[in-house]
Amino acid sequence: MTTAALPPILLIDDDPLVLETLKDLCESMDCQRQVHHLDTASAFDAAADPEIGLIVCDYRFPYTSGVTFIEQVRRRGIETPVLFISGAPDSDAVMKASLLPRTAFLSKPFTIQRFRDAITSLLDAPV
Fold first, then answer.
1. Which residues contact 66 (CB under 8 A, 6 or more apart)?
2. Spatial separation of the C-alpha atoms in residues 40 and 95, rounded to whole Å
3. Which residues does 125 contact at the CB level (< 8 Å), separation at least 6?
4. Structural domain contains residue 2
5. What is the pTM of this model?
6. Residues 6 or more apart from 45 whose CB is under 8 A from it?
7. 18-76: per-residue pLDDT in tens?
């Protein structure tokens, strides 16, 4: 079980309030560095940063999806674990996200404990 400080985390959500909440949650888990983006287009370079240890990404964006973004990231050879979050999940979304390697899916609203458990599980999973 992960007990050390969290690695740097890339947070991507188009809702500034959700982004702020995610930032606070990560800080409460002893994550000293987060990189924040409101859209996937601006997050590509951040996803390529080798120090990033986890990506927390909204599933739905106005013009794309988090899965499309992560598929593009994976094509660049980046295998960083991903936690998708969504306020409007559907079975297709969960299925598509679950088919990607090193990913998990969390429906909003979620408890702090479920968020922590999902992150711990992703970070502790074998590569």
1. 12, 40, 57, 58, 59, 60, 82, 84, 86, 97
2. 21
3. 81, 102
4. no
5. 0.89
6. none
7. 999 999 999 988 887 889 988 888 898 999 999 999 999 998 888 888 888 998 999 99
Q: What is the CATH number of the domain that holds 60?
A: 3.40.50.2300
Q: Which of 71, 76, 13, 3 is nearest to 42 (CA)?
A: 13
Q: What are the tokens at 122?
A: 């992703």
User: Token pair of 30, please?
Assistant: 């002893």
1 lies in some domain: no
**How far, in Å, are 57, 104, 111 from residue 81 at the CA level?**
11, 8, 20
